[in-house]
Write a structure and sequence with these properties.
The complex is a heterodimer of chains A (82) and B (164).
Chain A (H helix, E strand, L loop, with lengths): L1 E6 L2 H6 L3 E5 L7 H11 L4 H4 L3 E4 L2 E3 L10 E5 L6
Parallel strand pairs in A: 1-5
Antiparallel strand pairs in A: 1-2, 3-4, 3-5
Chain B lengths: L2 E2 L19 E8 L3 E2 L2 E10 L1 H19 L3 E7 L1 E4 L3 E9 L2 H18 L2 E7 L4 E3 L11 H7 L15
Parallel strand pairs in B: 1-5
Antiparallel strand pairs in B: 2-7, 3-4, 4-6, 4-8, 5-7, 8-9
Helix pairs in contact in B: 1-2
Chain lengths: 82, 164
């Protein structure tokens, strides 16, 4: 299963790019599992992920929701508009 | 429209042609300032995750109208590179009286700051840049993290990110 992570805000700097496609290991079922796999692949992101929201298009996902092949997950660190 | 890469224009969001029963117009404008936590800021860059940002701004307008019983609330935000003094956000509320107009305007701006996926990167005089500390918008943030990461959002809370 391949999932593409899209990085926003300070995460781009930590990830070294705007996005990263990752082939997830067998057994990855949930958003939380996918983030664990991402932290393994890009250790510099690890410290940010607890504090990061995950969105698919215009919807915020819970950590318990299922991930599917081809999904695009947008990672949203703490916000500071205005 | 909610997010603009060009300078914000106030007139179209004022709702002056309608709401003839309203005796109040409250407008808030957030501008870019040249100092943050003791460091001289030269300019800043706003980025937004547009699909969710626009949906949430629409929801905040709707919630504000319902919560304060005001017929008109509009909020727009600039994205891209901004210079000192540029307008970053406009909020306009029409209401029958000033009390609810002020309160609704404050509420809408606070909610945009706390909930909408927009990020501010400040560029400093010394050549460095940094993203502002902000509010975690994860919907299922564990309680033990909430104290560390989320802000209290109380009326008297001194927000570190309250720069507008």
């Amino acid at each position: 299963m391949v999932v593409t992570f899209e990085f926003w805000g300070a995460l781009r700097r930590a990830a070294g790019g705007d996005e990263r496609a990752l082939t997830l290991p067998a057994g990855v079922l949930s958003v939380a599992d996918a983030l664990d796999a991402l932290a393994d692949a890009v250790p510099a992101l690890g410290e940010y992920l607890d504090n990061t929201a995950v969105a698919q298009a215009d919807r915020l996902l819970l950590r318990t929701e299922a991930v599917e092949d081809g999904m695009r997950l947008s990672l949203l660190p703490p916000v500071a508009g205005g | 429209m909610y997010l603009y890469e060009t300078p914000l224009i106030l007139d179209p969001i004022l709702g002056m042609a309608e709401h003839r029963d309203c005796g109040a117009l409250s407008v808030f404008a957030g501008t870019v300032r040249d100092l943050n936590e003791g460091k001289r800021v030269l300019r800043l860059k706003y980025t937004a995750f547009a699909p969710l940002a626009e949906k949430l701004m629409r929801e905040i307008e709707q919630e504000t109208r319902e919560k304060f019983g005001v017929p008109h609330c509009r909020v727009i935000h600039r994205i891209g590179m901004l210079e000192i003094g540029d307008i970053a956000i406009y909020c306009a509320v029409r209401a029958p009286h000033r009390g609810e107009a002020f309160a609704a305007c404050k509420h809408a701006v606070d909610e945009v700051k706390h909930r909408v996926p927009i990020w501010k990167e400040e560029f400093f005089e010394d050549g460095t840049s940094a993203f502002n500390q902000g509010c975690c918008i994860r919907p299922d943030l564990p309680q033990e993290h909430a104290h560390d990461h989320a802000h209290g959002h109380g009326v008297h809370h001194d927000h570190k990110h309250d720069h507008a």
